[in-house]
Amino acid sequence: MAIDSETARLLIACKQAGIPFGRTIMLGRQNYLLRPAETRALFKSHRMEPDPRLLKSIPPGSNPPFAEPFFECLGATACQAMDVSPYEGAEIIHDMNERLSPDWFEKFDLVFDGGTLEHVFQFPQALHNAMQLVKVGGWFASFTPANNWFGHGFYQFSPEVYFRALSRQNGFSKCAVFMVPEGLKLSWYQVKDPDELKTR
């Protein structure tokens, strides 16, 4: 689970669209994978200033840094991680297969899933938990593979999962899904809701 260049582009686009980062929670503590030169170029292209902690070179064989400084660059005033174990320093320990304590309901401006939910066997419960973490006026953002890699996780999700779960009936006012094909010269494509198109 990590912020790569395309995930970073998604999150910067969220900021530029006015999505508040205020109190942010990561599902699984995210690493930050961009090298200093990539970070400088990305931030410059969006007329933003990177946090100096994102510009430190990582010695070969070292683990990449965690992503909290990146989220702070986007406006997070508090950034926490929820994980099943404290191994990587998550502040909130919870098994997403299990129901979430009401103590955590509606606490976060942004709930970010950067590749965690496809690894949780009880996905409906895990997604429900994530939705409950979002406070009124908040957002859920996810970056997940759809590349047919068997064995990467338990699941890969169709856009319809998100369109139906993050619907008005479930208390969400908007849902946008984008696909990013792998490879060079990456382009983003917005996916239309099959319910509106009346076809897949």
How many strands appear in the DSSP assignment?
Answer: 9
Oligomer: single chain
Q: Rounded to an integer, what's the Rg over CA atoms?
A: 17 Å
Distance between the termini: 29 Å
| Overall geometric form | globular
Q: Which runs of at least 5 residues are low in confidence (pLDDT < 50)? A: none
- Main sheet: strand order: 5-4-2-6-7
Structure explained in plain terms:
This protein is α/β, with parallel strands linked by helices. Helix content is 25%, strand content 19%. The chain has six helices and nine strands. The strands form three sheets. It has a five-stranded parallel sheet with strand order 5-4-2-6-7. Helix 4 links the parallel strand 6 (108-113) and strand 7. 28% of the residues are buried.
Task: Describe the secondary-structure layout.
Layout: E1 2-3, H1 5-16, E2 23-27, E3 31-32, H2 36-45, H3 68-73, E4 78-83, E5 92-93, E6 108-113, H4 123-133, E7 134-142, H5 159-165, E8 177-179, E9 189-191, H6 194-197
Parallel strand pairs: 1-3, 2-4, 2-6, 4-5, 6-7
Antiparallel strand pairs: 8-9
